[in-house]
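hi! just following up on the protien thing from before. the input was this:
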Amino acid sequence: MSLSDLVLSIADNKQMLGLRYAEWATRAPSLEADIAAAAMGLDDLGHSRVLYGCLEPLGEDPRSPERETDPGSLRLRKMLMEERYHFLHGRSWLRSGIDTEPLHRAWREAIEWFGPPDGETTQLYKEGRLSMGPAELRERLEELLESRAPEMTIEWKLWDPIRRRGRKGAIDESTFAMLRGLEEKKFAPAAQAKEA
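and the predicted 3d structure came back as:
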């Protein structure tokens, strides 16, 4: 796995997260949470575009030629500033109390995303291409969240370096349709839907 594979994985995750936040924009427990979800969803969709734009300069862009390729340092800086807000929002939800099962699942997914102790993230860290490896990322996350990760055993032999997880699973049909633009066809006038 290369650095561009890692950036692509982050970009894909940001795109999916943006869509998931959009789903919460009308279902959150309060108006303020609705607005925050909508804003963070838009931020993450924008972040995915910036990250996709970073792929070409890394030398390995697996996407098609029809794309935006200029990430611009200002866009990256803005993205990191927005991530700070997302972190503070998420941490406030964490402090408000989360059931144990989803909290442990989130910790597992984060640790799996960092990768195995002897995997490519560690190698990129040792080469100086990443500022932290899996152990450092876990420590940093625990520090930021002011919480220790629960005890868990991860079966790294089942871990998929492309999907960055150890469990099977896929995008649900509704999300897949949204990604392909099929959702918009449902709401288009009949004549337009046939053309699309």
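The CA atoms of residues 16 and 179 lie 9 Å apart.
The chain has a mean pLDDT of 78.
cheers
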